[in-house]
Structure formats: structure tokens, C-alpha cells
Amino acid sequence: MLKRYRIQFPQTDVGELSQDEVYFYLLNGQGEKTKIRLHEYERIYRIPGLYEQVVYDRLKCQSPSTVTDVLKYTLSQSDQRLNELRVLDLGAGNGMAGEELKKHGVSRLIGVDIIPEAREATERDRPGIYDAYYVMDLCALTSDEREEITSWSPECLISVAALGFGDIPAQAFLEAFNLIAQHGWVSFNIKETFLDRTDESGFSTLIRELIFSKYLDLYHLQRYRHRYSLEGEPLYYFALGGKKTAHVPAPFIESLQLPD
Ligand SMILES: C[S@@+](CC[C@H](N)C(=O)[O-])C[C@H]1O[C@@H](n2cnc3c(N)ncnc32)[C@H](O)[C@@H]1O
Q1: Same domain for 130 and 165?
Q2: Residue 210: which domain range?
Q3: CB–CB of 81/103 below 8 Å?
Q4: Where does residue 213 fall: left (phi above 0), alpha (psi -120 to 50 degrees), or beta otherwise?
Q5: Cα angle at 7 between 13 and 238, to 5 degrees?
Q6: Residue 103 is part of a domain; what is its CATH number?
Q7: Is the CB of 237 inside a 6 Å radius of any atom of ligand 1?
Q8: Is 24 helix (H, G, I), strand (E, B) or coil?
Q9: Number of domains in the chain
Q10: Residue 79 sits in the same domain as residue 175
Q11: Does 180 contact ligand 1 (Cβ within 6 A)?
Q12: 19, 77, 234, 255 - which has most CB atoms within 10 Å?
């Protein structure tokens, strides 16, 4: 049973803040409060159960189950069975999405995250969920690291609540996309504005170009409430499922002119 904390969301209007700037207070019972940004994963993961309490209990995040359902629905349109898949979980965090996927059964589950605190929290709170969990920066993989991941022959990529917004950059996503098998499966979620042509950020450009490219066959696109904002407004995302048709070649990536 995870410990419960006293948490306070800011009274003032935080609506002006971007999604990676929003914060909450952690109260210690003696009148002291610590301000923590929702994206300060290192700090949050060090405190057992805090991420679950804020993001899942209070903000009602439903992305792990939605992305898993979308993957299942995608696979149901083929002969591929989920329990035979070797899955790479990009931005695995403290294992919430991995745990959800594992409930349905997969052949192998490999986690990757950029911060050691994510792996430590997973080992502490969800031991045994992953067959391997790597702390790596997918924007700067060494050839040994790349070989380590590919030694698992992953044939499915999932990424839950980890793409864009100062989290996983487009280059890292493309690296992961290219690490899975040529005809592998993908399922991930993105904020709804990422599909809007007026959003010209690197990630939006990548996602729009990829979805309509010859490198991915889109099987399923679902709009849903990812979670609530700190002000209680619903935040809508798309969960996407598809089949990779080919590795993305360097010229395509260069043509996107992604920021460094
Ligand atoms: C909002 S958390 C999501 C965690 C988990 N997927 C879940 O559903 O609860 C985003 C995660 O992405 C990780 N992340 C950010 N940038 C990354 C990168 N370049 N490579 C790998 N992981 C990254 C963060 O460390 C964090 O654990």
C-alpha cells in the first residue's frame, strides 16, 4: 500500500503556464510546503507513490489503459497476438504503462527512460514488470547502447504521456521507431494540437508527416481525455496505433528540419 501525501494545487490561475511548467505543492504537515513542477520527474519519482497520487488519483490520467487498448485494437486487425510481442516502452517512467500492458501479457517488455530515478522507482514500486530497463538518452545513443536494445529484437514501440512538451524530442522518437523491427507495431499518445497544422513545433511536424508517410500504416486513431489540468479542465489527446512499414531514412528526417 503506497503512502498518501498532502497535496495542494495552486489557488492562483495557472492557466497561463504551459503544460510542462505547471506545479503543485507538497505539504509536510508542519505548515511547510514544497513547490514541485509536474515535469520534475526526478524529484517526484524519488517519493514513492507521489506520481500515482497526483497524476492518476487527482488528475485522473487514463493514458496507460487507453494506449494499451488502442494497441490491442490495432493488433486485432491482424494475425499478430499481443502475448507474442516484444515491446519497447519509450519514456517508461516509473512503469505505469508497462504495468498496464503486462496485465494483458506480452512476450518481453523493455523499458527506456532518460533519468535513473525512473528506473529506481520502477524497481522499487513495480519490480519484475520489465525484462530489462535501460537509462539511456535516445538522442545520443552509443553503438553499444543501440546494440543492447536491438539484442531484444523489439517488434513493438509504445510511448505513453512522454512525447513532446519538453519530454521526448522528435529525434529520440524516430530513433526508437527505427530500433523496432521493420514491420513492427506502434502505439502512443499525443496532445490533440499536435495534429493541428497551426502547431509548427518539431514534434507536431514529425507526427503529422509520419502518420501520412509511407513508413507507417495508420490502423487506429482515438481522441480521448488524457487527464484533467490542474484547473480541472479536460486535456484531450489522440492515441494512435499502427504498423511500421519501413525504417525512416535519414533524408526523410533531414527534410523535417527538426530543431536540435
Ligand atoms: C509523463 S512521464 C510518463 C511515464 C510513463 N510512460 C507513464 O505513462 O506514466 C514522461 C517520461 O519520459 C521520460 N523522458 C523524457 N525525455 C526522455 C528522453 N529523451 N528519452 C527517454 N525518456 C525521456 C521522462 O524522464 C519521464 O519519465
Answers
A1: yes
A2: 63-255
A3: no
A4: beta
A5: 65
A6: 3.40.50.150
A7: no
A8: strand
A9: 2
A10: yes
A11: no
A12: 19
Reported as a pLDDT band with limits 50, 70 and 90, residue 200 is confident
119 and 164, same domain (yes or no): yes
Q: Answer whether 101 contacts ligand 1 (Cβ < 6 A).
A: no
Q: What's the gap in Å between 31 CA and the centre of ligand 1?
A: 32
**Does residue 162 fall inside a structural domain?**
yes
Same domain, 53 and 79: no
Phi, psi of 52 (to 5 degrees): -60, -45
User: Predicted confidence band at 47 (pLDDT cuts at 50, 70, 90)?
Assistant: very high
Q: Tell how far the Cα of 67 is from the centroid of ligand 1, in angstroms.
A: 15
- Residue 162, ligand 1, Cβ within 6 A: yes
Confidence (pLDDT) at 205 = 84
Q: Are 175 and 194 members of one domain?
A: yes
| 206 within domain boundaries | yes
Protein residue closest via CA to atom 17 of ligand 1: 168
Pocket test for ligand 1, best of 62, 125, 167 (most atoms within 8 A of CB): 167
Query: Which SS3 state, helix, strand or coil, does residue 230 take?
Result: coil
